[in-house]
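Subject: sequence -> structure tokens, single chain

Hey, anyone have a minute? Need the predicted structure for the following. Not urgent.
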Amino acid sequence: MLEKTAKEGPVKLHERLLNLAAASLAEREFKQESSKLWEEPYPQASSWKPCADKTSPQVVRAGKPRNITGYILISANGGLNQQRVAVCNAVAVASLLNATLVIPKFLYSNVWKDPSQFGDIYQEDYFMDMLKDEVNIIKELPPNLKLLDVEAAGSLITDADLSKEATPAEYIKKILPLLLRNRVVHFLGYGNRLGFDPLPYELQRLRCKCNFHALKFVPKIQKTGSLLVRRIRRYDFARSTLDKQLLGNLIPRVPSIEHNAAEGPSKYLALHLRFEIDMVAYSMCEFGGGETERRELQTYRQVHFPLLLERLKESKSYSPEELRRMGKCPLTPEEAALVLAGLGFKHGTYIYLAGSDIYGGQSRMQALTTLYPNLVTKENLLSPSELAPFRNFSSQLAALDFIACATSDVFAITDSGSQLSSLVSGFRTYYGGGHAPTLRPSKKRLAAILSRNKTIGWNSFKEKIRKMIDEGQRVQVRGLGRSIYRHPRCKECMCRH
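Reply:
Had a minute. Here:
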């Protein structure tokens, strides 16, 4: 590894490969680009269609459920995407316990520093109306229950009271008696507390309906999101079902009179780089920044991840090299650039970068911006006055990234475990009709390929990268225990035609 710190200049771990990539891009500049780069490689993807909103005959006959057991309050933690998962899980739990759900609250976090509540991000009335045949949802507790001290009554439930990915049986055993006794249960800091399997068909379908149909962004977000998408594409009309679902009627179905066909349409690739300092520090990996980097990351861990450091003292430790071989290290912007070049994306490819605050700043980004200079962010495309209503609201800013990534021609991710990447890729699977490819590098396989960076030829590198991405795009039915939000190809969510 190069012992060059961020302050001394750009950090490059694979300079030889970057030079080969630059030469390859220059050679291809005036050649016809393969249209296959912008398409899903497997036609079977188009045989899956959305159908989680199709209410079963049993539910229709039963009509709107009655509140028999009590009321469920949730206070969801995390950022936009963690909260979205919590809301859908809460809907399923309310149905399971035959309870009334109060519109969820979002906890203020010192990490996210966003006071936004449900109604600041999602359309409350639409949410309630979309789910009305299956779950009772109200905006506030009845007056006679508002004064109940849920903690004193034993109805305050934290993560310590429920298993991670708990089963329905655990909710029925632990939560239902409290609900029947006190009429109210409050899930505090609610998140990943409902497992995916085993779960009854109707509850699984309800989670999908909540995620893919009931959670619509408020007009304020849709309006700015449509403006953002039109500026990325450089044309002003809707193109796909994804546009309609995310932007409603705020993006025209046909070109405007002023539309200049010569200016578009233009394809764009959205890239979600998970290389913020929290991700980098938590990984315990090294990224070529030398002693300065090691000190910075260790200081950050001591402040933000003291429990991680305590846990590492009591467990087997792995070297940064071993962690990389195991596929535990976040991809750097440099590695993301090499993957795109290996796949054949041209130098002029228009790239929307989701997120911000890349660790190492411009010096860390230089390899990517040199190979792909047409890289834009929401901060580039929207004026300060257009962004002003979203300042200090990180979840609302994340919603704009969600829209720009979900409606892109190609979505590339560097960490398949991130919530934004998972939910956006699931949304594209659900509404993309087999025409919304997502590129998912395997960190472990990429590490093995890059371990030969001093000797591997460019043609061999390209072949291995393409094979890695191709295998990640195979059309597969959701596996046991896998997230239904990320993998909606299953009978509870989608129908195969």
